[in-house]
Amino acid sequence: ISEPKLIVIDGDSLPAFNEVFQELNVLENSVFVINNLNEIKHNFIDFHKELESISTANPKTTYDSNLRDMAMYIFTSGTTGLPKAALQSNARLLNAFGYLAFELTQNDVLYSSLPLYHSHAMVNGWGSVMNGGCAFAIRKRFSASKFWKDIKKCGATCVLYIGELPRYLLNRPESEYVENTTLKKMLGLGLRKDIWEEFKSRFHIDHVLEFYGATDGAGGLFNIEEVPGMIGRITVAGTIIIVKIDEETGEFFKDEKNQYIECKPGETGMMLAKIAE
């Protein structure tokens, strides 16, 4: 889809990658393998060995970079069609919401069990620690049974979450690692109102902050007031509006001038975000 010039691949994905490699227009010396813990045989470049001999000088290309340049593409999951490559600029990473919400400093440790191809982990996670100068503890996949042990082991002060992750933790038996936990703040989306306060109280969490957005979206909502169950507030006037729709057909209601009708407070509608240049 993206026709990459270089590929970095995890060792666990090597068997699947080998099956499609011949179909790709990529040379063997353009594929770098990381974390090949099972020592799967391959003809590509071992990334970790390559690092031992690489220069530490800053490449000239970084001098010429600016905020409008693309830092990366993050592919959507494809739930509403084929996966789409969403552009992530340098500016978006530098303006990472997580950094501002967490008020990160070099004394913090941000923990995430989300994959880095997810924008929450990459933008609000990696982008935030780059801004705050703190450590980033990354787990390969979420484990409810090992979560609190991980927090204690790395001294995490902040955690990224998504969806029902907090509920999974609530459903677990008491953990010996919760007492005197270093974890104070969590940032994510999807924490239900019915368990919000219970979650904070049981695990001694000081702050839970939420946002609502999309990798390929043009706007977002933010709940930095920590109101349980609130999706969020509009941050910049004029960038997002809620308009009336027919809930049965999904069609927009319009006024006599054929304009969309903005919802009043308390009314249900469709969120529209302004697409900037």
Automatic annotation (TrEMBL):
<dbReference type="InterPro" id="IPR020845">
    <property type="entry name" value="AMP-binding_CS"/>
</dbReference>
<keyword id="KW-0547">Nucleotide-binding</keyword>
<dbReference type="GO" id="GO:0005524">
    <property type="term" value="F:ATP binding"/>
</dbReference>
<dbReference type="Pfam" id="PF00501">
    <property type="entry name" value="AMP-binding"/>
</dbReference>
<dbReference type="GO" id="GO:0005324">
    <property type="term" value="F:long-chain fatty acid transmembrane transporter activity"/>
</dbReference>
<dbReference type="InterPro" id="IPR000873">
    <property type="entry name" value="AMP-dep_synth/lig_dom"/>
</dbReference>
<dbReference type="GO" id="GO:0044539">
    <property type="term" value="P:long-chain fatty acid import into cell"/>
</dbReference>
<keyword id="KW-0067">ATP-binding</keyword>
<comment type="similarity">
    <text>Belongs to the ATP-dependent AMP-binding enzyme family.</text>
</comment>
<dbReference type="GO" id="GO:0004467">
    <property type="term" value="F:long-chain fatty acid-CoA ligase activity"/>
</dbReference>
<keyword id="KW-0436">Ligase</keyword>
<feature type="domain" description="AMP-dependent synthetase/ligase">
    <location>
        <begin position="2"/>
        <end position="256"/>
    </location>
</feature>
<protein>
    <recommendedName>
        <fullName>AMP-dependent synthetase/ligase domain-containing protein</fullName>
    </recommendedName>
</protein>
<dbReference type="GO" id="GO:0005886">
    <property type="term" value="C:plasma membrane"/>
</dbReference>
<dbReference type="InterPro" id="IPR042099">
    <property type="entry name" value="ANL_N_sf"/>
</dbReference>
